[in-house]
Amino acid sequence: MESQLHIPYLREAIVFLVVAGLAVPLLQRKLSPVLGYLLIGGIIGPFGLGLLAGDSPLIAALVISDLEGVRALAEIGVIFLLFTIGLELSLDRLWSMRRLVFGLGSAQIVLTGSLIGAFAYYWGHSAGAALVLGACLALSSTAIVTQLLIEKRRLGTPVGRSAFSVLLMQDLAVVPILFIVGVLGTVTAGGSVIGGLALALGEAAVTVVVIYAAGRLLLRPLLRAVAQTGSREAFMAVILLIALGTAAITGMVGLSMALGAFLAGLLIAETEYRHQVEIDIEPFKGLMLGLFFVSVGMGIDWRVLGQEPFWIAASVIGLLTLKASINILLFLLWKLPFHRAAEAGLLLSQAGEFAFIVVGLAMGLAILPESTGQFMLIVAGLTMILTPGIAGAARKLGERIEHCRASETDKEAAERYADLEGHVVIAGFGRVGRMIASMLDKEGIPYLAIDRNPEIASEARKTGLPARFGDASRLEVLRAARVDHASALVITLGEEVATENLTKSMREAAPHVPLYVRARDTEQAERLENAGATAAVPETVEASLQLAGRVLSGCGIEEEVVRQRIKLER
To answer: Least crowded by CB within 10 Å, which of 85, 194, 276, 425?
Structure first.
């Protein structure tokens, strides 16, 4: 009977959906989704189960052997990633980050690429091959690093912003790198280097200017017209058209398709439809990025890994060490604290997804030998697989370094505050603690804040605020802050149990010190007052009273009447 399955890549799509819907969620309990996709890709690829399939139809049904087809689809994941990165930026924000993006990012690419290229040339590769290897291996994985930062909610932290700035410059550098590879291919074919480079640069400049001008002129009216129809399908179709269409335009003129998608996202970020587009595009980006990571795992030929385990391991360790060392040095030169420089430097130590594109193109143009290209693809893939583990270790290392520095600073602070009396001790320096400290400052009342988050304590000290690192829920830490000689202790800890235990301990240890405590609700406030708090203020009640006051004022009630009403309710 003739098969009725005529949809291209249908079997591959079904296998991928099984992976995304069943296998990865199970692995995610122990591993990150990125690492799960990479491992599953290695298993279902031609160098995993494909080597064991033989005559078994069951195993063969689980194997994806058409790598080129899968990689073609996987490129859409990179396109969506760059599109969403563009959405998160704007031209104003990009310009405000110029010091890190164009300064630090450019220095990282040039220095890292030069050293890697020099090593490759010294190892016996041709000048063209060394240039290609240095250029592509200098780049890190935007897809993996960005995804890890988002998962850990660290994209907005100083480490996240610094790493993202370097990644953004690396994404922009893909265009000239592809130029270089294309020009080297022209040289191999007997063409003109200067002519090929000039033509490529001219095409790039014209294309970017045309896309930007057309986008600024037409994009907002187009999105407004589609949004007014109220059709979510039409709006989604137009967004996909803008993202993929712009990527296709840049691809047709020889530029990176990812650059086109980034430009499209950057233009939409200037409109009022930015947030809706981010929400609508998220599922597509996640699935396509998953497909990309699966394709990376599928491309690792484990047989080569077994043939040259020493040199592959040495190359992986050497690449990670070299890139991490350069990154840390540059982050320090750009005034990033050492603990953050160490974390960000290790986070960007792997090779990137564009290495697969650039090395594949270089092999197709006969710039890189097939054996060298496959070796470097395995090295790049392994560094990407190791990235989630390296990121976790980098985070712990950064915390340990910061804890050591904070402890040394706290010893100095203890000596500085040795004679402090009549001050207010603030246990917990989050948003509530900072608000209280600001009001004390305005009234000229001395205070000393304590917080167990080393970054909060460090940032406060840099701005001249009297803050120390320490676990404010521990009585001995408060005694080191001379709480026995304080005029009051303010407890703003977020944990209910720790707050109640500290209130009881303080009332027994220093019954003469007034205790003002932040409570979650009225029930906890009552428990805290029974435990000895001078006053316990429930944050939910206060927020409700303030909101009610705004509502009354908005309804035309006089301010004095509003204040009296709030006072009565309180």
So the answer is: 194
